[in-house]
Amino acid sequence: MSPTRISRTQRLVGPLRGLLVAVFAALVVAQVAVLPAAFARMADESPDLAPLRWPLLVLAVVGLVCVEAVLVCTWRLLTMVRDDQIFSDHALLWVNGIVAAVAGAWVLVLAAFALLVAAEGLVGLAALLLLVLLVGAAVGLLMVVLRALLRQATELRTDLDGVI
């Protein structure tokens, strides 16, 4: 790898890691402070939705844990990119972790969507969750395609290393 390319990659990994740390911290704050307060307010303002306060809070917190898992896997993949080790079977494990976390979060959003639709129909938050479901499905499918591309690139790199 050329020195210019190494320094360019290293320049990108640092800011990306900083962004991942900031997002992770914001997610923890949301899990500990923002979501409990928001669901308490929802229960106070909409007594018909009060029974959903705790199930929705649990689904939201666990959903954010899935997002945090994606951040951890991304951190590890950034390390592999920086160290020029991304084209390895080990990288596929981290990508599989991302796919699993996205799938888990999607199932949790689906459950929250079903709870809200059963309680109040397709209005407000339920409509927003439908949009999140569609975006989540697209992200999940994109990750599956990217995993297949990484697998192909890894096989090609292994073949080239064998020839050289």
UniProtKB/TrEMBL annotation:
Pfam families: DUF2975. The keyword Nucleus does not apply. The chain crosses the membrane at residues 12-34, 54-79, 91-119, 125-150. Keywords: Membrane, Transmembrane, Transmembrane helix. InterPro entries: DUF2975. This is DUF2975 domain-containing protein.
